[in-house]
Amino acid sequence: MSELEHVLENPSVYGKKLGEFTTQCPFCGGPLHVVEIEYEIPVIGKTLIVSKKCSKCGYKRNDVVPLAGKEHLRVYFKVEEPEDFDVKVVRSPTARVVIPELGLELDPGIDAEMFVTNIEGILQLFLDALHRLRVLEPEADISAIENTIRQILEKRRGGFTVVLDDENGLSTFYSETRNLLVLSERTG
Ligand SMILES: [Zn+2]
Q: What distance in angstroms lies between residue 26's CA and the mean position of ligand 1's atoms?
């Protein structure tokens, strides 16, 4: 379970609960339980997490809203050493993930949620996306890039950059154990 999931499961332990109420579920009309939590995400700072859960149909959604001013940010992390694969990645629903050296690019999902993973998890995300592409377009030749990613994961071989391009400036890299060189760039 990721750190953010822990926060969402135990809001009062990790974050400050700001409000809690019940409204109507947009899908089944059942009781939708809404909790608003103020939570400090490393590097990004204070955010508001709005967590919704329907007890009737099971609909669940977590939205993260920055409490600080939002601005378009592009953050870069160069993966070099094997331990860089453990660096944490906070990816917001509005972030595009790009690995220029491998020609990989992943657009934000339509219904994506905020989540915390690591560099390894990001590469896994690309493998999953390629797998979906293979199902949708069996003709697409993706075995070369798939093999490249698998080898990188297996050998923890660095030499590429992960870019998080986020119009809400909510995505970042961090480590609890070491200082990282993370470059960020404001755009537009
Ligand atoms: Zn429902």
A: 7
Q: How far is the CA of 53 from the centre of ligand 1 (A)?
A: 8
Separation of alpha carbons 173 and 68, rounded Å:
18
Range of the domain at 32: 3-66
Pick from 21, 40, 66: which residue ends a domain? 66
CA of 52 to the centre of ligand 1 (A): 10
User: Would you state the pLDDT for residue 4?
Assistant: 64
Ligand 1 centre and the CA of 60: distance in Å? Answer: 9
| CA of residue 14 relative to chain centroid, distance | 19
Dist. CA 34 → ligand 1 center (Å): 12
Q: Do 59 and 150 fall into the same domain?
A: no
Q: Are residues 54 and 86 in the same domain?
A: no
Residue 83 sits at the vertex; the CA angle it makes with 78 and 89, to the nearest 5 degrees, is 60
DSSP state of 109: P
Q: How far is CA 73 from the centre of its chain?
A: 15
How many structural domains are present in the chain?
2
Which residues neighbour 156 within 8 Å (Cβ) at sequence distance 6 or greater? 82, 85
Query: What is the average per-residue pLDDT within 85-96?
Result: 89
Residue 1 has pLDDT above 60, yes or no: no
